[in-house]
Design goal:
With about 525 residues, the chain is an alpha+beta fold. About 40% of the residues lie in helices and about 15% in strands. The chain folds into 3 domains: about 230 residues, Lysozyme, CATH 1.10.530.10; about 110 residues, no CATH class; about 80 residues, Membrane-bound Lytic Murein Transglycosylase D, Chain A, CATH 3.10.350.
Amino acid sequence: MRISKKVLWLGAVCVGLWNTSAMAGDATPVVPQERLAFESDTLQTTAQEEKDLLPYLPEVEVIGPTPAVPEQLLKERFAKLEKSIPLRYHKSSHEFVEYFIYKKAEFTKTMMEKMPLYFPLFEKALQKHGLPTELKYLSMIESGLNPTVISHARAGGLWQFMPATGREFGLYQDKYIDERFEPAKATEAACLYLAQLYRIFGDWELALASYNTGPGNVKRAMRRSRGTTFWTIYNVLPRETRSYVPQYVAMNYMMNYGHDHGIYPENTEFPIPNDTIHINGYIDLAAFCQQSDIRFEDLQKLNPQITKTILPEQTRDFVLKVPSVQYTYFVSNRNVIMDSCTRRFLASGLMVAKVDSTKTDSLGRNSAFPYALASVDTGVEDDEHDSETEQVVTSRSSTKTKKSLHTVRRGENLGAIARRYHVSVAELRRWNHIRRNNIQRGQRLVVYKEVKVAAPNTRVVLASYRADEPVANKDRHVRKKYHTVQRGDTLWIISQRYGLEIGQLKKRNRIRGNSIKPGQKLIIST
């Protein structure tokens, strides 16, 4: 009987130890498999990027009885850093501090290098909305300060908005533009969302937790645990969310005390000084960069919301940022540059035939085909037919197929060549018997194009190349040309754009001072 009691006692002890071990294992943060559609998801990209970038995906080692960073030191420093958002000491926060120091030092260094690039923008937006400025560290946990990253659940941008949540907070998204990637607009949306979450819970730790897992999950955890603070509902939250707030606390600490642990930035990044131009209509951004002497990588950094290398015909009032260093050159050579990267369409939707779409500028002037009609609306409007001066002639149009050869240059691919000649990739492959998309430098490709041939007895409208060209036909009808003032336009910018003197522009429009308003129509030529 005594032996039986001893056996039972030993068994109870073993069960107790087993349960204790299992409870300790629950504290290890892992990523949940299912997440709410409206949450602000955290970043997950390729396997290598997960290893190199994201601190919260791998498991964190539990600190021992003698941690490398003293507990008392962290408590004192957390208290010094604490402002509006509580920075409570917790074993999990301690683990993440040591994790960022010893296992993810490279990630910590990268965050230090990117701080000057985004923090001024974050701080300005947070102050505007009356939010704690220390919320700026949240984006490091969300995206690693990568403005174009997309998670496995399709959350994107610096603040990891789901598509539906992004639209709810005013972030436009289509095939060519995704404003979740635009730092200023995404930060504005994040401020609105965080303010909304704080109004719901009245507690910043709960607001941060709900930013990660959604307010619904946090409310359910509060009902299940009957807790009212993050730490009282900690054990019933999803595992990832348990580690989310401690990660935020640890990242706040590292950005302020990382130097004390031997981590320093090496290649600090700063914003590229930039100016803006307004785009209305189609533009080939690769050709624009080539002609403007702008590095395409710089244009991408300034405009991360552009997801393609072009903007489509329906683009209206898009503000394109360009490096200030090249802006003066662009203004001086605007017509030539826009010749190379825009194309224009007739009112019927048909594009006027021309040798290359990169030969028409934003005013519709074309050096290779001087009588091509204009297309891209850059704020220029005409009285009737969107043309500068019109001439009515009688002719009959027909089409003729023309064969030409293209020699593949270094860096070209079938897609780029197809866009250049306004044909499809499938047609290029069929004409040249190409099974896959592999082409080589120096290879000659056959391209077929339909060229319009004019014949008598059809009415055709042609656009003159120069407004001041000698009138060869007495029947030519001259019409006024207008410019609609866009946001950011000044008299100087408009005068440079059309090659006019400011005095001449003011005289034509009877402007006394220098003030103009968006939507105002100015006479450019008469």
